[in-house]
Amino acid sequence: MNHRYPFIVIEGLDGTGKTTLRKGLFRLWEGLYGVTPLCALTTNFLASDQAAAIVTGKYQPNAANRDAYLSAIVADKRATLDRLVLPQRAARPVIADRWLLSELAFFAVKHGMRASETYGTLTAQLTVAPDLTLVLDLETDTSMSRAQARQGDAVRADWDVHDVQSRVRETYEAVVSKPDEFPLLGNVVRLDARRPRSEVLLAAWDVLRERQLVPLRAARTEGGETHG
Question: Among 58, 113, 200, 209, which is least packed by CB within 10 angstroms?
Answer without folding.
Answer: 209
